[in-house]
Amino acid sequence: MAEYDVVIIGGGPGGYNAGIRAGQLGLKVAVVEGRGVLGGTCLNVGCMPSKALLHASELYEAVGKEFATLGIEAKAKLNLSQMMAQKQESVEALTKGVEFLFKKNKVDWIKGWGRIDGPGKVVVKGEDGAETTLAAKNIVIATGSEPSPLPGVEVDQKRIVDSTGALALPEVPKSLIVIGAGIIGLELGSVWRRLGAEVTVVEFLDRITPGMDAETAKTFQRSLTKQGMKFKLGSKVTGAKTSAKDVTLTVEPVAGGEAETLKADYVLLAIGRRPYTQGLGLETVGIEPDKRGVIAGDHFKTTAPGVWVIGDVTTGPMLAHKAEDEAVACIEIIAGKAGHVNYGVIPSVVYTAPEVAWVGKTEEELKAEGAEYKAGKFPFTANSRAKINHEAEGFVKVLADARTDRILGVHMIGPNVGDMIAEYCVAMEFGAASEDVARTCHPHPTRSEALRQAAMGVEGWTMQA
Ligand code: FAD
Ligand code: NAI
Question: How many CA atoms lie less than 13 Å away from 311 in the CB half-sphere?
Answer without folding.
Answer: 33
